[in-house]
């Protein structure tokens, strides 16, 4: 007499086998010892096409003996239940073709789904994705090197030093700084933080960078520089979906070494921290970010200094990466400024040691 | 991870935000929330469970509020955390959206 349960079981077994055999990925099932129990035809074909011996990786052979030690270790973490899944990407280049595969290992449970009795190993051809990633990486590396090339040399003169330092959270930075000698005793220094980060912010920062020298050397005064930048933002960057509220924060200072003054404008940017002798000051924001308001009221400030003066400008990535609120960040920076006369070296080290969430840029200025 | 929940009461809607507001919320805000909230007379955005807003998130919030206002919807943002309000103030968001937009 035919057992209907047995017929159903055989039927399911046959369907399962057909599914495995029909899959394009290379599939093998191993037991706890690494012995291969099942392979599909894609697995066997691949071994044959690549001149391998199907005996070595076919049913009855041991997968651990043909795998490197690290791969075996990873497979065993699935077999002993330490991990639910292991994915390993590896190159598998043919003489005339570059190829990459991803090995995916998942546990094979017993009938009651209580115990791990083996593992299912799948190899997928990921060459197309890998090639795309490599091309993108190459493009990003090139863009990054272009962005680095447009960073200005520091100003290191007898009476004034201006230096900058940035670290990008992605390949490209949306933070941007520049400085220009306007006359024998006037220097324009600017730090901008473009909204967002990554490729878009990096591209925007390069576009803005190309305008800066003209704007700063023509307009000179902080209020005029801000208005001109704001105008350019509205003109060039604010059309199209997603760009309606595109903006950047920034701080621009006009330093006059004869007058011993700092005229500045801060547009939604964290306050620059200054120390002149023992007197400290903050160049706080009093204006909306560049690009957010069509006709902003302009509020500029001016600080008169008498002694040797140090200033640190920074983007909010600095305080965010330290999990500090803006006000706490100002106190921290001021406290640190007292510790080392070379504030640039001091803060560059602090920034380099941080676990960054966002782009970080700092600009340090010292003048007599 | 950002999420939101809309509670509606006739012509008014209350939308509760939770999580960080950043660039990952772009589709959620632009493709889901703006169309979903357009048509109400007034919208209250509960902001108390938002701990962090980056510059992209700030742009999205401005876009949301301004798009709704352009459609004649009154928008109010409620219970902004102190540390988030510090950033809003730095960027003069209350001046841009109107001080009355921010309530309790």
TrEMBL record, chain A:
GO terms for molecular function: protein serine/threonine phosphatase activity. Keywords: Hydrolase. SMART domains: PP2C_SIG. The keyword Ligase does not apply. It holds the Pfam family PAS_4. Transmembrane segments: none annotated. Its EC number is 3.1.3.16. Residues 164-367 form the PPM-type phosphatase domain. PANTHER family: PHOSPHOSERINE PHOSPHATASE RSBP, STAGE II SPORULATION PROTEIN E-RELATED. This is PP2C family protein-serine/threonine phosphatase. It comes from Jeotgalibacillus terrae.
Automatic annotation (TrEMBL), chain B:
Gene3D superfamilies: STAS domain (3.30.750.24). Residues 2-104 form the STAS domain. Signal peptide: none annotated. SUPFAM superfamilies: SpoIIaa-like (SSF52091). It holds the Pfam family STAS. Belongs to the anti-sigma-factor antagonist family. NCBIfam families: ant_ant_sig. This is Anti-sigma factor antagonist. It comes from Jeotgalibacillus terrae.
């Amino acid at each position: 007499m035919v057992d209907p349960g047995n017929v159903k079981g055989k039927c399911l077994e046959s369907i399962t086998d057909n599914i495995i055999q029909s899959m394009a990925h290379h599939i093998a099932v191993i037991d706890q010892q690494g012995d291969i129990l099942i392979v599909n035809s894609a697995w066997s074909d691949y071994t044959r096409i690549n001149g391998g011996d199907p005996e070595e990786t076919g049913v009855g052979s041991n997968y651990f003996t043909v795998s490197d030690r690290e791969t075996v270790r990873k497979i065993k973490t699935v077999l002993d239940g330490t991990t639910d899944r292991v994915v390993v990407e590896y190159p598998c280049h043919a003489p005339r073709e570059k190829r990459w595969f991803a090995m995916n290992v998942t546990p094979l449970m017993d009938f009651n789904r209580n115990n791990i009795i083996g593992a299912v190993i799948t190899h997928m051809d990921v060459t197309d994705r890998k090639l795309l990633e490599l091309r993108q990486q190459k493009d990003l590396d090139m863009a990054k090197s272009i962005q680095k090339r447009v960073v200005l040399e520091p100003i290191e003169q007898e009476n004034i030093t201006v230096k900058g330092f940035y670290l990008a959270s992605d390949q490209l930075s949306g933070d941007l700084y520049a400085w220009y000698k306007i006359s024998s005793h006037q220097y324009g220094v600017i730090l901008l933080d473009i909204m967002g980060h990554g490729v878009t912010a990096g591209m925007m920062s390069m576009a803005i960078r190309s305008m800066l020298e003209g704007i700063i050397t023509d307009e000179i005064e902080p209020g005029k520089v801000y208005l001109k930048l704001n105008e350019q933002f509205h003109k060039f960057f604010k059309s199209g979906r997603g760009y309606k509220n595109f903006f950047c924060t920034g701080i621009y200072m006009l330093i006059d070494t004869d007058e011993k003054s700092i005229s500045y404008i801060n547009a939604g940017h964290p306050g620059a921290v200054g120390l002149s002798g023992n007197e400290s000051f903050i160049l706080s924001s009093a204006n909306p970010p560049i690009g957010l308001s069509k006709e902003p009221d302009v509020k500029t400030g001016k600080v008169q200094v008498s002694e040797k003066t140090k200033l640190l400008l920074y983007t909010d990535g600095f305080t965010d990466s330290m999990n500090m609120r803006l006000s706490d960040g100002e106190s921290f920076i001021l406290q640190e400024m007292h510790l080392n006369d070379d504030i640039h070296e001091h803060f560059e080290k602090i920034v380099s040691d941080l676990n960054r969430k966002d782009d970080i840029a700092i600009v340090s200025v010292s003048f007599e | 991870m950002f999420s939101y929940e809309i509670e509606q009461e006739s012509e008014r809607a209350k939308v509760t935000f939770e999580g960080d507001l950043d660039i990952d919320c772009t589709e959620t805000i632009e493709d889901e929330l703006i169309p979903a909230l357009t048509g109400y007379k007034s919208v209250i955005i509960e902001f108390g469970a938002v701990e962090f807003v980056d510059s992209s998130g700030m742009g999205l919030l401005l876009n949301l509020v301004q798009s709704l206002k352009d459609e004649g919807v009154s928008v109010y943002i409620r219970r902004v955390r102190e540390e988030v309000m510090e950033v809003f103030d730095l960027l003069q968001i209350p001046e841009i959206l109107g001080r009355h937009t921010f309530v309790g």
